[in-house]
Structure formats: C-alpha cells, structure tokens
C-alpha cells in the first residue's frame, strides 16, 4: 500500500472550507476545555460526542482531530500560569513552566509548550501515516485468542499503572465491566444486570457513560468541595516566541521528549503520564552536568521535553487505535466509542472498508497541529482568561450542556436519569481515589473481550489452552507478567523509602 498518494487524497478531502472549520472549532473547543483544571482532552471529546451525530462521519472525526491535540495543550496553559495542570499529563511541564512564569517568562514558557506539542505531534503523526498500513497488515495475524490477550493486556496494564494501588485499579476495572455487560446477552438472550428495567435491555450507551463519568462526575466532585483553593493568575508579558538561544536550548529536549513519547502511544499504560515524567527526569539529570544548572529556576528544557513527549504519545496512540482497535488512554477509548457509534470497528479491516475516512482523518491530524500552533502561540493568554470565570457558573454550564447533549443523542429522559446515576458513580470514584481510565477502557473493550473469548472457546471446542496457543498470545502474557512484576518492585521500593 503506497501511503503518500492516499495521504494526499486525504488532504484533498480535508482541505475544504467546511472541514477546515470543523478542525478550527475542534481545536478551539479542545483548548478551552483543556485549560480548565480537572477536565482535559478526554472531557472535551466526551462533551463533543453527542453533538457530532448531526454531522457525517468524516466531519465528526475531523473535529475530533482538532479536539484531540487542542485539549493536550490546554492542559499545560493552566499548569504554567496557575500551577494547576488541567490534566495529569501536564503535571511534568508544570514544575519548570510555572517557575518560568513566576520569573516573568510566561509567554516564552507557553511558546515552548506550543512548539513542543507541535513538534512531538508532527513526528508521531508522520510515523503513523506512513507506518499504519504496515501495522494494519501485521494486525491481520491476530485471531480471536490474540485479540482477547490484547484486551486482557490493556485491562491489567492500565489498572496497575494509573492507580496508586493495584486493587483500586482492578476495582475500577470491575465497575467498568459491570456497566459494559448490562443488557441482553446476544447469544443466549438472557438479561444481565438489568434489574428488570426495560430501558436497560439495550445496554447503557457509551455516550451516557463517558459524559456522565467524566463531565457530570467532575461537576458533582467540585460541588461537594466547600472551599476551593484560590490562586492568582499570572499575566503573560513579553514576546510570545523564542529567541535563537532559547531555540538551541529547547530543540534537543523536544527531540528527546518525542523519542520517549513515541513507543508509549502503542502501549496500554493509560496515557502520557509515564513518558512525560521520564522525559522530565532525563532533562533534569542532564541539567546537573551543566556548568550553570537551570532546573528549579525555570529551565526551558523542563517544559520542552514533557510537552513533546505528551503529544508524541497522543499521535502514536491514534495509530494503535486505527490499526489494532486498541485504545491506550481514556481519550482514545472515547474515540473508539465514536467509531462504534458510526458502525465502524477500528482494526486492520478499517483501511479497506473505510479507507477514505481513515486517510482524511490522518490528514486532518496534520492540519489540526498547524491550527493548534496558530491558535495558541500568540493567543494562549486569552485562553487563560477562562480560569477567572466563577466556578459555579462554569460547572453549571458544563452540567447543562452534558444533559442536553445526552438527551439530544438518544431522545430519552431515561438516558438523562441514567446520566445522573453514572455521574454519581464518577463522583464516588473521585472521592475515594479510584482511577477513571480503567472504567472507560473496560466499558469500550469489555464486549470485544467477551466476544473474542467466546469465539476462541467455540473454535477450540472448550479447550482453554487455545487462549495461549500462539506465539503472539504467549508474548503478550509474558510482557504483561513482566510489567506487573516491574510495577510491584517499584511500588515496594517507594514504600520502603517512605518507611525509612
């Protein structure tokens, strides 16, 4: 498969006035929601999901492309200016970025973040565009047992990594599986977890789950806290671009951060937190060898590397989603849900059955990065003004928008009441420190895992050894075991240090 002509056709389809407007609107929405602490790109995609059903699939996914990268950069704006990262993926950038802002270099910090996000995303998207067909061909080697092993790998890896306790991660995973299995079993016709309520027979819509868990759950959590921390917003002054000397300092960090982010996009570890912290730690160690160390006083490398790593992870995560149907983060899980709602299943056959849409989407990722740079390099301080909106008005608007979106997508008041129930579950998860990513991954991948498990056992006539009968499945389970052992060792070391 020759990727370049197909990608050029994708650009021809994406570069229409209406599609450019979709990308522009998506980037604006993603950045605006990402700026708000506690929300982020996954929230932006979840809120947009009910709205896009009036659009054709191409227009909807082009808008998602803008949201996808816009939300990541919005997370960093609040971290740099307010020392409150919009999402966990922006924590590493906040350490040095906020120090740069305090020293009067907020504009340069935002510029570093914007260019880092652009460079990391550009390299990753280029690799995806030219490597996705090869990954799709390799994915044809996967059968039912391999896809089940891949789903188990995603379940356990994400549950173990994103939570401070493996038990909390697995508890969140079980909650997601319980939600996913609500409804009528397609094979036996038996009702499961429906409580005899007719509205549950068709299952719980992924839109209700994502919007309720992310948007309404956050609204309830904020409303439950009487006293909110008050922090002063730092105004940005000076030039919103980098000098030649600053470019020379930041460029190697951008490349090193990108190198960290690329492989983590295809590994189901829950998002970009790990590569961003690895990139930050590397720059900090390198800084100690310099004659005049800058870390702790606002080092530009401490912003450049994590930002590039985060967007590189997001870029290759899209490749894993399109070619394997594997969501490696909560945002990718919601994107997968959007594909399913449009009657498409990401995986190796997607390039054959919906090739026009896939290549237009890949082209729109490039366009979205350029729009992101244009929007945020000079105008990032304007986005920060959203932080001064009173929280009671802001979150009331989010709750209203979530309820209207869910009602518009299904036309049922039962969905609105179900939305409130899921929102309360999301509130309880936040209240007791359970992660949300395993819930979303389980809701999306749970039915797939069940189907592939049943297919494997049906083909093998009930022989459970068929689940580990191929080299791919043995490799996946071995990697999973090694990852679990590594996580256990790291946790034990952390506890021993705390005890000392």
UniProtKB/TrEMBL annotation:
Keywords: Membrane, Transmembrane, Transmembrane helix
Residue ranges of the TM segments: 20-49, 61-82, 109-135, 147-163, 169-188, 200-223, 320-344, 356-375, 395-420, 469-490
UniProt entry tagged with the keyword DNA-binding: no
Domain DUF112: 20-440
PANTHER family per UniProt: TRICARBOXYLIC TRANSPORT PROTEIN
Official protein name in the record: Tripartite tricarboxylate transporter permease
